[in-house]
Amino acid sequence: MLKVIGLWINTLVDQQLPVPQELVGVLPSEVRTRLVDYLASGLPLVGYRGCSWCRFACGIDSSKMGSWDLTDGIWVWPEGLAHYVEAHRIVLPDEFITHAMSGRAKQRPTALKTTQATTRNIGCVGARLDGCLQ
Ligand SMILES: [Zn+2]
Prior knowledge:
Blueprint: E1 3-4, H1 29-40, E2 43-47, E3 68-71, E4 75-78, H2 81-87, H3 94-101, H4 116-122, H5 124-130
Zinc ion binds at residues 54, 56, 58, 60, 83, 87-88.
């Protein structure tokens, strides 16, 4: 099952998702650089008809935030997550950082599934992933 990371709260209904401003923190520069490279080189998984936007409202062109969900076969994240880590200094969970630093090769998942909890938490995003199962 894919683990979802890098989705942000949109409404008060999805308060389980974080606000990226609350995730700003310190990482060693080498770790941050490798993490950005890892995120940016994810494998395209699901494409959308529109681009994301930066929740820090930094002025980056939305086309640079991307319109894909990327994966490594274990995790799935929005294409723009690398921007948050690099430009806004957010810190991702230790579990993901350890995984990303492990050197494990990325691979496409053989089946697209998310946990029920993840699907419930991410609402329509989970629906779009589950919709790709057939
Ligand atoms: Zn930004």
